[in-house]
Design a protein that fits this description.
The protein is α/β, with parallel strands linked by helices and about 425 residues long. The chain has two domains: about 240 residues, Glycogen Phosphorylase B (Rossmann fold, 3-Layer(aba) Sandwich); about 180 residues, Rossmann fold, CATH 3.40.50.2000. About 40% of the residues lie in helices and about 15% in strands. It has 17 helices and 14 strands. The strands form two sheets. Strands 3-4-2-1-5-6-7-8 form an eight-stranded mixed β-sheet, sandwiched between helices. Strands 11-10-9-12-13-14 form a six-stranded parallel β-sheet, with helices on both faces. The chain starts with a strand and ends in an 18-residue tail after the last helix.
Length: about 425
């Protein structure tokens, strides 16, 4: 099959969407399919609206049999975010899919899909709200008269349908158009599937598949070396994310401060990039942070991440901005107990009390008590971590996920734009 994957960025540090498509793309190419990735040259998420942020050169490159086309993100001459938002509000039907923040402006990609003679048989893209590339994918699917498959990664807020400014990033009219026109909507949890249907996806197109990891790639770290390098003797509370308020990073910081005030010897280790909102929060906290109990790693290599996971005693990601939370799987594989938020897709991943704990989004005191509970009862927390590991091995390896994706690709092959897969077509019998 000729497959086009459309994703907002190709760098792994940009999050779950790029990581998901790297794994699917490489496996599809290894299986003999012709895979082209259409993406941007962003390396850091801030590059979508700030031209001075890290980025790579545009161009075409072959990676493990996958043809990767990187198109340059463009920026408006003054205050990109505000001007782009004004354009989108002035004519949402016309400019919304191209400019509405935080989506990147990628005019070269849109020109390419209108002109290319390399037409695919399947177009599969991600991810809201960085969906200007997805709109280009829709154009390409319509030109090729082939199915559009969508992995929206609906990060839908505090509750199942948290009506907030945050949720509106994921329920704009052009996004609902994308959902309605997709032949398959891959979702990571049943919770996300219900939200997709509420936003216009046809129920018969919704396909829960989860997300995966490669167990050997996330285990085997040197926890003792990590502790020795950073001078850590007590328990470690680990937080790995693109740090932001919506990710609960500020809540983790506040929970650690409360633990320290109660005399805890826990060390908070944070890893990942930081959005401006969290950098402001960190500056406000900085004078009250104990220098020997707070370690800010920033971006880390895969080796450093493995070492941190091997060293950790508790992993916390109390986020409302995750449709799934792939790092939970990585923590479980290292037999680290986890804490998530009762928000977004996370309750569809963690079985509260069985393989982890859930707290309310934004509840720093609840998070602090959950950390104390896991550290105080190592037998129970170890059992939760092992239950999570068993779940990962049964359901969430990349081989399992790719098999489910490929099954839908094969069912869609030969269909036109908007048509259902072969085994999902409505019956014509009376």
């Amino acid at each position: 099959m000729r497959i086009a994957h459309v994703v907002q960025g190709w760098a792994e540090q940009l999050g779950g969407g790029p990581r998901y498509f790297r794994e699917i793309s490489f496996r599809a190419a290894a299986a003999g399919h012709d895979v082209t990735v259409l993406t941007t040259n962003a390396v850091d998420g801030e590059y979508f609206w700030r031209g001075s942020a890290p980025h790579s050169a545009p161009g075409v490159q072959d990676e493990r049999g996958v043809r990767v086309r990187r198109f340059p993100v463009r920026h408006l001459p003054i205050n990109h975010w505000k001007l782009a938002r004004a354009l989108a509000l002035a004519a949402p039907g016309l400019w919304g899919p191209y400019f509405d923040p935080p989506t990147p402006w990628v005019p070269d990609l849109h020109r390419y899909v209108r002109r290319t003679s390399e037409l695919p048989e399947i177009v599969h893209g991600t991810g809201f709200p960085l969906d200007s590339p997805l709109w280009a994918g829709r154009t390409l699917a319509q030109r090729a008269d082939c199915p559009l498959l969508l992995t929206p990664l609906l990060h839908f807020g505090r509750g199942e349908r948290d009506v907030s400014e945050f949720e509106r990033f994921y329920s704009r009219s052009h996004q609902q158009t994308l959902l309605r026109g997709s032949s398959v909507v891959f979702v990571l949890t049943a919770i996300e599937g219900d939200v997709a249907i509420s936003l216009g996806a046809r129920p018969e197109t919704v396909c829960p598949i989860g997300i995966g990891i490669e167990p050997a790639e996330v285990t085997g770290g040197d926890g003792e070396a990590f502790r020795a390098h950073h001078g850590i003797e007590g328990p470690i509370l680990l937080h790995i994310a693109t740090r932001a308020v919506a990710k609960g990073s500020d809540t983790v910081l506040e929970a650690a401060r409360r633990l320290w005030d109660r005399g805890s010897d826990v060390t908070l280790v944070m890893a990942g990039g930081s959005m401006p909102c969290f950098r402001e929060c960190l500056e406000a906290f900085r004078d009250s942070l104990p220098g020997d109990r707070f370690i800010d790693l920033g971006y880390v290599s895969e080796d450093e991440k493995r070492d941190a996971l091997a060293a950790a005693d508790v992993f916390a990601l109390p986020s409302r901005a995750d449709a799934f939370g792939i790092v939970f799987l990585e923590a479980w594989m290292n037999e680290v107990p986890v804490i998530g938020a009762r928000a977004g897709g996370i309750p569809g991943v963690i079985d509260d009390g069985r393989d982890g704990l859930l707290v309310e989004y934004g509840d720093a005191d609840g998070l602090a008590h959950a950390v104390e509970r896991l550290l105080a009862d190592r037998k129970a927390s170890g059992a939760m971590a092992r239950a999570g590991k068993e779940k990962v091995l049964a359901r969430y390896t990349w081989d399992e996920v790719f098999a489910r994706v490929l099954e839908r690709y094969e069912a869609c092959a030969g269909r036109g734009y908007g048509e259902l897969p072969a085994h999902e077509r409505p019956s014509t019998r009376s």
